[in-house]
Amino acid sequence: MTPPIGKSGIVGLIPHAGAMCLLDSVQSWDRATIVCTASSHRDPDHPLASDGRLDAVCGIEYAAQAMAIHGALIAATGRRPVAGYLASVRDVVCRAGRLDLFPDVLEISAGMIAGDAAGAIYEFTLQCGSETILRGRAAVVIDAGAPPATARLA
Q: What's the pLDDT tens digit per position in 18-32?
């Protein structure tokens, strides 16, 4: 079991800064799983909110940040990846309309199904207490590099 990691430790692991760093802590992690917590869903100035509403589908970003932290923690080099991209989400089940209506801390869990230096596939779950709000699978591409240059006409 690993000791919890607070917000200042998280900021050092992912590129998200300020209000876009959505997670408060990493409660536990190992080579295959991570469990994080967040309370930012209650922030009236949440950067993903629209007209004061934080749609539950925004929970995918919470899960993506948990996956990014996990990738940085298990990186063989001990350095966080240069870049990571959420390539796809599948089998997403959303059981609520809004995150901002949940009064308690969110728990975000992600488990790596498969992965290598180029990417990973994770299962993720977002819960509040015993209620599952969102779950699904995500494919992440790691260090994908810059997009190909466009051809120039002579």
A: 999 999 999 999 999
Cα 62 to Cα 118: distance, rounded to the nearest angstrom: 22
Domain residues of the chain, as ranges?
7-142
Structure tokens at 66: 């948990």
Angle at 92 between CA 37 and CA 14, to 5 degrees: 40
Distance CA 6, CA 44 (A): 22
- CB neighbours of 56 closer than 8 A, spacing ≥ 6? 94, 95, 96, 97, 98, 99, 133, 134
User: For 111-141, how does the pLDDT look when each residue is reduced to its tens digit (9 = 90+)?
Assistant: 999 988 788 999 999 999 999 999 999 999 9
If one looks up domain 7-142 in CATH, what number appears?
Answer: 3.10.129.10
